[in-house]
Structure formats: C-alpha cells, structure tokens
Amino acid sequence: MSASDRARDFWDRISPRERRLVIIAAIAAPITIAVWLGLQIKDGLDHIETRNAKMRRALVVLTDLRARGPIQPTDDVVATMGVEPLSLDTYLRNAANKAGFPIKGTITPRNPVTRNGFVTNSVSIALDDLELEKVKAFLQEVETASKVVVVTNLDIKRDFKDKKLVDAKLEVSTYSKEKPAGEAEKAEGSAEKKGG
C-alpha cells in the first residue's frame, strides 16, 4: 500500500470535525514555523546591527584620534630635567628622615658618567640594622620624591643576630642634562680664575 492510499484511508476513517482540525493544523504549522523563523532572523539582524553601530562609533573615534595625531606626554621628565644634578647626599638624608631613621654611614659618591647628552651622578650607601618597613619606606621615598632619581642597584640581607632587621647596600643615581659646550667652557674658565 502506497503512502497516498494510506493517507486516503486515514482521511476516510476520521470524522468531519477531525478533518477540520487536520486542515487547520496543516495551515497553522507552516505559518507558525514561518513566524518563528522570521523572528529568529529579525533577532539576528538586530544583533548584527547593534554590533555594526558599535563598530561605526569606534571607527569614528579612531578617525578622530588619528586626525589629532599622537598623544604628547604631558609630564615629560626630559623636558623638566635641568643641567645641575640633585645633591644626592641631601636628597637621601631627607628621604631617610621621612622614613624615620638617620643615615649613620657615609654616602660615597661615584664619578659622574656622561653619555648621549645626559650626566649620571651616582652614590653608594650602606644601611645597617634597619627594620624592613623602614627600608621599604626609604626606598619608596627615594623613588617617588623626584623623577630623576632612581635606585640602580640594591642588595638586602637579613641580619643574623635579629631576624626583624636587615642590612641594605644600594646605589642611587640621578640624571641631568649635559651642559651646553659654551656653558661648560665658562664654568671651567671661572674655576681657573678662582684657582689662579
């Protein structure tokens, strides 16, 4: 028996009321599926449109930023750097006072190094028998009080006698611009006059 014969037998067996329900279901099912698909497509298109709107706004912002050019740093350390270096001795003693201890040892200066138009002045210092929190506060003060001063070498060891204390050896450097050739010669000439 073929499928059409089975369908005809099914149609003949059911009552007229059931036939109407089958006809309504045959019409309603495709319409329901079509409406559901339409809503799914509409939701997908709305999602794509929202994403495209965000992309358009981002492109407008990028175009505006590109038209303005690169952002220039407002806090340029090199622009504010002077030709006279900071006095590291005073700077470190002030940082130690703010951290809550005096510097007992000597602050040993190193020879200045000139390279690429900048002068690096460095000192070495040893801090013995200090609490770790005071060393931390001292280092934070050294690094944050001036942008041209940095800790370039640090060696911390725990004190064997008292585990709460540490010994620290550090090298601190400050940077300045190299004096222009004319100013350097004037400074040398005035020094010779004072000496002679």
Key structural traits:
single chain, 196 residues, alpha+beta, Alpha-Beta Plaits, 5-stranded antiparallel β-sheet
What would your notes on this structure say?
With 196 residues, the chain is an alpha+beta fold. The protein folds into two domains: 3-64; 79-180, Ribosomal protein S6/Translation elongation factor EF1B (Alpha-Beta Plaits), CATH 3.30.70.60. The chain contains six helices and five strands, in the order H-H-H-H-E-E-E-H-E-E-H. It has helices at residues 3-13, 16-68, 77-80, 88-99, 132-145, 181-195; strands spanning 108-109, 113-115, 118-131, 149-158, 165-177. Strands 1, 2, 3, 4 and 5 form a five-stranded antiparallel sheet that branches. A hairpin with a 6-residue loop joins strand 4 and strand 5. The longest helix has 53 residues, at 16-68. The protein is elongated and about 115 Å long. The protein starts with a helix and ends with a helix.
Question: Briefly, what is this?
Answer:
The chain has helices at residues 3-13, 16-68, 77-80, 88-99, 132-145, 181-195; strands spanning 108-109, 113-115, 118-131, 149-158, 165-177. The protein is an alpha+beta fold and 196 residues long.
